[in-house]
Design goal:
alpha+beta, Beta-Lactamase, Heat Shock Protein 90, 2 domains, seven-stranded antiparallel beta sheet, five-stranded mixed beta sheet, 50% helix, binds adenosine-5'-triphosphate, binds magnesium ion
């Protein structure tokens, strides 16, 4: 093989190695540049190869990485001011490559002679500007030490190929930076939305808790007066104590609801649970009440075992909220019933709660999921049930919605089913 052919094979191998490395598009310029300077010295057989980039104002170039063969070291940080080397910098702007055999004598590189070439014993240079979007952003320098060297056209092409790869490194870095910025912005807007709904919640909570607190305060004032009274009226005493206990329970319910909100998004308590156990546990909280008040409860028979990775307490709380709402909507009506349905799809499970009621007034549909929206009498509903439930379902990556086309009132909970859930059946 001719010399130039051997060289070409070497260059081809070096470029293939670079192409296969994941460092180029990884967004870490230091590691990528080190790979490239090492490839340059090895393939070109030079002592020094370096990558320099302009500062933002284009007043100087800064050394990002220099690899020196003898010492096998990488270094960085040196700066060269444009005003000190005007001919060299203006040449870079206008040309694709600078090939110099005798750097001391050449009219473009001689300005480096005393300050740079002599102390480093450099004789020949092959420099290629790095372009990004057509604009020069830096330069690759290859320096022959100790003797002069004649560069070949293959050397020139190889360095140009590496300069293009440096451009790719910088593009990847820019792209990753933009992606990270976008992610931060998205996180910030989610945070802002959470804070906004928290603010909305806080206003509602203050209002909701304030009313029962006033009741407790006036009942305890009344108790104080009652105790001053010599003839203690036991009936009045009982009534006030009851009122305090009931009202305190109402506050307790609100606070519990809020705790669920705060837990929204936590995934660490999720475990594989059997749906039939989940249904059983949930229904044990309400079966008696449904039966004693004449509301028929239809529950699906689950024949095959189905597992889901969920926070069982949270999902059970959601179902209970829906069952209680259904119960409240139909209790006391002729032929009242509530039905639980289960549909299993490949990537999702849908659980719905339908009641014998005939849907929800279209004017209310948009409001029912809002925190504190309730049509129930004061002291009965907090209006947190659906909004808390929706938060819990969404924190599982699912959806909770009112089925718009159903003849009867029907709420649907969709939960994603993962590969892990399905595999639990087999193992
Ligand atoms: N199955 C249903 N049928 C008719 N209306 C419903 C049904 N489920 C919910 N709603 C309406 O949506 C409102 C909000 O429900 P949500 O569960 O959020 O609060 P709540 O039931 O009023 O109070 P809480 O759940 O705190 O006891 C209810 O007051 C009711 O007007
Ligand atoms: Mg409710």
């Amino acid at each position: 093989m001719e010399n130039y052919q051997i060289k070409l094979v070497k260059f081809k191998e070096a470029l293939a190695k670079i192409a296969m490395s994941n460092l180029i598009d990884h967004g870490d310029r230091i590691l990528a540049f080190r790979l490239l300077t090492e490839a340059l010295v090895e393939s070109l057989n030079v002592e020094r190869a370096s990558i320099w980039l302009y500062d933002e104002g284009k007043t100087y170039i800064e050394l990002c990485d220099l690899f020196e063969v003898t010492s096998k070291t990488h270094s960085a940080g040196m700066k060269l001011n444009q005003v000190d080397f005007p001919i060299y910098f203006s040449f870079l702007q206008q040309n694709r490559v600078l090939v110099v055999e005798d750097a001391h004598a050449d009219k473009i590189t001689s300005e480096f002679s005393t300050s740079y070439l002599t102390p480093l014993n450099i004789h020949s240079m092959l420099d290629v500007p790095i372009r990004l979007g057509g604009e020069v952003v830096g330069v690759i320098c290859n320096e022959q030490v100790g003797r002069m060297r004649q560069w070949t056209i293959e050397d020139d092409f190889f360095v140009c190929a590496i300069a293009d790869i440096v451009g790719r490194v910088l593009e990847a870095e820019k792209r990753l930076h933009a992606q990270r910025q976008l992610q931060t912005q998205q996180m910030q807007s989610v945070q802002a939305a959470k804070l906004a709904s928290l603010g909305e919640m806080a206003g509602g909570v203050a209002h909701e808790i304030n009313n029962p607190l006033q009741v407790i305060l006036s009942a305890s004032e009344f108790l104080k007066d009652l105790m001053m009274d010599q003839t203690l009226d036991r009936e009045s005493l009982k009534e006030s104590v009851h009122m305090i206990a009931n009202t305190a329970q109402r506050i307790d319910k609100i606070v519990k609801g809020l705790k669920y909100f705060a837990r929204e998004g936590s995934i660490e308590q999720r475990q594989l649970h059997s749906l039939s156990n989940l249904f059983e546990d949930t229904l044990s909280f309400c079966r008696e009440r449904f039966a004693s008040r004449g509301v028929r409860l239809d529950v699906p028979e689950i024949r095959e075992p189905i597992f889901l990775k969920i926070n069982a307490i949270a999902v059970s709380q959601v179902l209970l909220n829906l069952l209680n709402n259904a119960f409240d909507a139909v209790v006391g009506k002729q032929g009242a019933w509530v039905r639980l349905d289960l549909d299993v799809f490949e990537g999702m499970i849908s659980i719905s709660v339908t009641d014998s009621g005939e849907g929800i007034d279209p004017a209310l549909r948009d409001k029912i999921m809002n925190p504190f929206f309730t049509t129930k009498p004061i002291g009965i509903g907090t209006g947190l049930g659906l909004s808390v439930s929706r938060g819990l379902v969404e924190s599982h990556g699912g959806r909770l919605y009112l089925e718009p086309t159903s003849k009867n009132t029907r709420f649907v909970v969709e939960l994603p089913r993962t590969y892990e859930d399905v595999m639990a059946l087999i193992s």
